[in-house]
Amino acid sequence: MQWFLNELKKGLPRTNGAGWTIISDEHQSILRAVNLELPQAEHRHCARHIYANWKKDFKGEELKLHFWRCVKSYNMADFNDALQEMTELNHAAVDEFRKADPNVFCRPYLKNLTKCDTIVSNMVETFNNYIMRARSKHLIDMLEDIRTMLMKRLVTKKEDAQKWVGSICPKILALLEKEKEEATKCTIMPATTSLFLVAYYFDTLEVDLDKRSCTCGKWDLKGIPCRHAIATILYKRFDVSAFVDRCYTKEAYLEAYSGSIPPLAGDRYWPKMNTTLLPPPIKLGPGRPRKNRRKSAHEDPKKPGKLTRHGLQMSYRVCGLPGHNKRKCPDKDTIREPSPPPKRGRGRPKKVVATPSTQSTITHEISAQPS
User: Fold this and answer.
1) Burial readout 255-271 (b: 16 or more C-beta within 10 A, e: otherwise)
2) Fewer Cβ in 10 A, N or C end of the chain?
3) What is the pTM of this model?
4) Strand pairing of 203-208 and 195-200?
5) Which of 65-74, 87-96, 118-127 has the lowest mean pLDDT?
6) Contacts of residue 145, Cβ cutoff 8 Å, sequence gap at least 6
7) What residue segments make up the domains of the chain, in order of their start?
8) For residue 260, pLDDT beyond 60
């Protein structure tokens, strides 16, 4: 891992890691290599891997929701509220949560220099799925397939970006449109020409247009104006897209895909060498080589990406108490189950022929009801 980071530093401008954000799991070789090669980089730990270890001792859907609510909070106020609710539910779970060091995987503690709020390593999983077929081939064929795939991807991404109409990426524009709907519910109270007090339901927040900052923390960390900031921008009759960070612009996107990988002819056209070149030694392990990724312990094998019902608390619908079913209910002898609804008879219901007597009764009942 240290060799890889050392080679990575040669192709990127800032060699000390300042301004970099690295996201990985808590493997000791990765932690040690980043600390040695990129000491000034921000090293985030994948929250999904931390939750996988944390949930071994603390199961349940409610604890899971509280965990991700703490992790995804953008400010300390929301983080402390979520942590307090988790404390009331399970105090030991909070102690174990703090031992994992929230400074490296919770959003309120992250640096806002790179304008990235990602706390999981899903990008790596996406790339692994992208090169899945190439990974099963021989080393030289695998590298050649990855090279041609990336060569084509750089061109297609650049051509797609050149067709964009506005100056902001389309996905960012879609996020701004959703936030504009919520911005209509904000009340603006100006303090200066650039400082505002925003009331949103029961919250009161401060927005600074010059510093591009909001009390909620979302604009500071992500670089995209939140609903409170959009309300103040529209109040001043400014263009919302002008307050989006440069990394989300069309110009920055084209700059990222400006490079190219030169084509390479087949091995038939390579220069011939007189020296004997031996292939690297290959050590084959027992069994068939693994192709699919390692699934979670509670992931449904028949439905990819879906979790099983493991960890969910059952409850008896009659007594309403969680943790047991009908067979183990402590009050099963005293509670009488509700009778099932009557079954509907087969066939079409018979028509009732209205006689003069029934017709007058129906008219009387309808007219007697209040208007």
Assistant:
1) eebeeeeeeeeeeeeee
2) C
3) 0.73
4) antiparallel
5) 118-127
6) 131, 133, 134, 137
7) 2-124, 131-165+254-264, 170-248
8) yes
